[in-house]
Amino acid sequence: MRKPGSMRGLEELGRVRLSPSFFMRDFMYSEISVFYGIPNIPDNPDLAIAAGRQLCGRLLEPLKASFGGLSIRSSYRNAAVNAFGNANGLNCANSQRARGRHVWDLRDGNGNMGAMACVALPWFTDRYASGADWRALAWWIHDHLPYSRLQFFPKLCAFNIGWSEAPERRIDSFISPRGCLTKPGRGNYAGDHSEWYTDFPPLAATD
């Protein structure tokens, strides 16, 4: 697919289905794009679609099915939107780090395809507001899903979740206790962490 050069072309891109529950349009909204007037259109739609399908099929669909709903807070950014956000302190990583993460249509520095979304799970957001520990959700995802990166934020306990052809399997948080929860080589990385999430739903089957 060529980069859309018209509203109709952008509309067609938005209709591309990434998984049973998600379409490309679901991921293209950006406050930076809307407020500052920078079109958030993929330069390489085919790569963005391929990466988005992996993110949705492997990570977001299982989360939605297991927890009964999922809210997309922020997701795809093209290189121009991301660069502007980074330069102006708008919570965007630098351009190199964003490749293969929020910038779906650029491969990372090692040539790997990847995609990332910031999401919130209403089921857990309510529990978090009542004092639940973010690490319970982090360990559930770690034990059940093939994520690459997780990063948790204080507001709504929203979190970045990324898929990659070369997964890092690392979890970080801006919620106390801040920093790296686990990564390959850490003593807490392997094994069963189910004591953290005894009252969580089981992993639901998806199509």
Largest sheet: 6 strands, mixed
Uncertain segments? none
Helix content: 25-40%
Instruction: Give the distance, in angstroms, between the N- and C-terminal Cα atoms.
Output: 26 Å
Into which percentage range does the β-strand content fall?
A: 5-15%
Dominant shape: globular
SS elements, strand count:
6
Mean pLDDT: 96
- What sequence of helices (H) and strands (E) makes up the elements? HHHEHHEHHEEEE
Structural class: alpha+beta
Note down, in words, how this protein is organized.
- The protein is α+β, with helices and mostly antiparallel strands.
- The chain has one domain.
- Helices cover 33% and strands 14% of the residues.
- The protein has a six-stranded mixed beta sheet.
- A hairpin with a 5-residue loop joins strand 5 and strand 6.
- The protein is globular and about 50 Å long.
- The model has no long low-confidence stretch (mean pLDDT 96).
Characteristic key phrases:
alpha+beta; 6-stranded mixed beta sheet; 207 residues; single chain
Summarize the structure.
The protein is α+β, with helices and mostly antiparallel strands. It is built from seven helices and six strands.
Topology (SSEs and partners):
Elements (H helix, E strand, L loop, with lengths): L6 H8 L16 H6 L8 H23 L3 E4 L4 H9 L7 H4 L15 E7 L1 H8 L4 H11 L4 E4 L6 E6 L5 E4 L5 E4 L25
Parallel strand pairs: 3-5
Antiparallel strand pairs: 1-2, 2-4, 3-4, 5-6
